[in-house]
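Saturday, quiet lab. Running sequence design on the structure tokens for the scaffold JK sent over.
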């Protein structure tokens, strides 16, 4: 059976996926290999959360969940603090990262380049989910509308970020006829919290950010609401998608899914952190459906999912 051969040698349906993966069932994510010799069953599972804000804060926030994950899988679990989206994708592609939350914008690249299989997303108690991209400035900046950014500077986070780069680039071009480097100077801060702090401290005149990150920073009193002013708010986008690398043993993938959906949020370290952005549970999702709008934004920006 051809699908059991090494992925790179296969003639199989794969869509935008890298040559090492197959997508026979057409769900846009890499199929789990049927050849047992290609499957991973690591003694220690490595988990990484998307690189926003301070990794130390999130190591503590995820501690109760990772203890639960150990109980369900019977394996030890290590928290891996990643410093960039690129490093997180490379870690999964190279087989060093097994379970992860990839942020909205880097999810498609993780799926297509690293064999990421997302299946869940955080949601509020009533099942609502998502966040908006906002363009923010500071009081007295002289910027009262998006058009006022012309001739000035706009801070982005990183090129793989949806709300920190890709969505605002597409929206500015289509709705305001504003193009980076032609109409304004782009600068890159690296992370949403850097952009938000940069505006609050008046180092950047304006920035495009994920408002879920800003909400948590206000809750934690890293900034105060009166330090920033929002001049644009987008439609709602999906938040971080969580899942596994494609070649974990199927039984292990199922145990990891079970751990996400059986986790008790109430009283946990996860609740203590994420209730700040109104999240209270993991719900099931599919990449094909939930990331449709993000793939359209990527198409508008001519984004390639090819591995670098």
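Result came back. Writing it out in full:
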């Amino acid at each position: 059976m051809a699908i059991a051969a090494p992925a790179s040698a296969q003639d199989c349906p794969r869509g935008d996926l890298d040559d090492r993966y197959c997508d026979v069932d057409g769900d846009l994510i890499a199929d789990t290999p049927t050849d047992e010799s290609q499957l991973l069953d690591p003694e220690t599972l490595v988990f990484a959360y998307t690189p926003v804000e301070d990794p130390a804060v999130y190591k503590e926030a995820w501690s109760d969940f990772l203890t639960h994950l150990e109980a369900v899988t019977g394996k030890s679990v290590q928290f891996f603090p990643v410093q960039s989206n690129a490093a997180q994708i490379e870690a999964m592609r190279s087989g060093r990262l097994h379970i992860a939350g990839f942020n909205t914008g880097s999810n498609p690249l993780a799926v297509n380049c690293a064999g990421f299989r997302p299946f869940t997303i955080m949601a509020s108690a009533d099942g609502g989910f998502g966040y908006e991209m906002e363009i923010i400035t500071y009081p007295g900046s002289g910027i009262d509308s998006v058009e006022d950014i012309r001739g000035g500077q706009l801070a982005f986070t990183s090129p793989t970020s949806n709300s920190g780069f890709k969505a605002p680039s597409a929206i500015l071009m289509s709705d305001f006829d504003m193009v980076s480097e032609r109409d304004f100077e782009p600068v890159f801060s690296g992370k949403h919290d850097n952009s938000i702090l940069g505006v609050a401290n008046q180092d950047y005149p304006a920035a495009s950010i994920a408002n879920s990150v800003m909400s948590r920073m206000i809750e934690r009193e890293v900034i105060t609401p009166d330090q920033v002013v929002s001049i644009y708010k987008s439609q709602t986008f999906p938040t971080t998608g969580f899942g596994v690398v494609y070649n974990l043993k199927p039984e292990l993938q199922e145990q990891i899914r079970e751990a996400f959906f059986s986790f008790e949020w109430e009283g946990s370290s996860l609740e203590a952190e994420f209730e700040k952005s109104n999240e209270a549970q993991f719900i099931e999702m599919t990449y094909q459906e939930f990331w449709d709008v993000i793939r359209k934004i990527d198409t508008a920006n001519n984004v390639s999912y090819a591995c670098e």
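Notes for JK: Residues 162-176 form the longest helix (15 residues). The chain has a mean pLDDT of 93. Ask whether to fix the surface positions before the next round.
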